[in-house]
């Protein structure tokens, strides 16, 4: 993977986006197995209905993983200097997630040329489910 060139990047540039397949019950089961998070809110439809919810929903960290994938499809993991995520809404079964990012600042940090990114994981209707910021070092 080639690291993007700092000089060629401008504030306002967007990084390559992607859209996930719809979140399915299988996605949630596989994520629960991999993460060790087997909370019934994400897996047990009877449990969530007893709590007044319509259906199970995705783990918040699944959306964070999608945003991590967005970053690592653009730069190698070792170029990531910081990555912080806020969970802003529930991701429901059946929703496809659209992951996008844009450059909001160019800076030098610890002697490295870096960019600060704003990242969003939203459903196809544009409702943000996760908002994030990241700093990555560029060549």
TrEMBL record:
The lineage of its organism: Bacteria, Pseudomonadati, Pseudomonadota, Betaproteobacteria, Candidatus Accumulibacter. It holds the Pfam family MaoC_dehydratas. This is (3R)-hydroxyacyl-ACP dehydratase subunit HadB. InterPro entries: HotDog_dom_sf (IPR029069), MaoC-like_dom (IPR002539), MCH/BMMD (IPR052342). PANTHER family: BETA-METHYLMALYL-COA DEHYDRATASE, MONOAMINE OXIDASE-RELATED. Residues 19-117 form the MaoC-like domain. It comes from Accumulibacter regalis.
